[in-house]
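Incident log, entry 3
Record: Transport permease protein (253 residues)
Problem: checksum mismatch between cached and fresh output.
Input:
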Amino acid sequence: MTTYFFGDTGVLTGRTLRHVTRSIDTIITTVITPIAMMLMFVYVFGGAIDTGRAQYIDYMLPGILLITIASGISYTAFRLFMDMKSGIFERFQAMPIARSGVLWAHVITSLVANLISLVIVVGVALLMGFRSGAGVVEWLAVVGVLLLFTLALTWIAVIPGLSATSVEGAGAFSYPLVFLPFISSAFVPTETMPGPVRWFAEHQPVTSIVNTLRGLLARQPVRDDVWVALAWCVGILVVAYVFAMVAYRRKIA
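Fresh output:
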């Protein structure tokens, strides 16, 4: 059964990946907004924000990477919604394949597509002056955290992808996720925020994830932030996965 699952998931992943490569504009659209934000913050607002000895591009890049992921997962919900509406799920159910492989194909495709988008954004950041003292181990840790965050948000995307009644509704969930980094330590130190806003910023998941990525890229101690970040990512992943599977079973029942 396990062999069938991996084989079926591999075939179905190839199908969804072909959809991405045939419409490369989705990846371009995904990276345009984060790159535009990066240009605006660095060249317009960067000079007015005190980040100590760190260059502003180095300081804010982790937040831009999270926004890139939040933008990219909306296409996962869109692709899943279109599959639901086209009736292909019903055809898959009539075939001797692992049913959960259909969802995992979309999830793996999301990881690949978002990884490509992240590489493009980091490439632009390097052209803008981003520099990192991180070694191989730190970069692998950064990639691991980003992939775990992408996996968690992708399973959130599966829920509206299965349950939305319109294309707009399938992608609308991503807007609050894109906005969340703005109320965190991603772009300005939380110490500059008023009381209630500062409390929220310091206790929401993005801040711990951003601080972890920032520390790894600067090759500085990440302290407890890494454990808090991992706990948030794993917690969101588990809860989203459970609700996504419940929504899936209702659809195929």
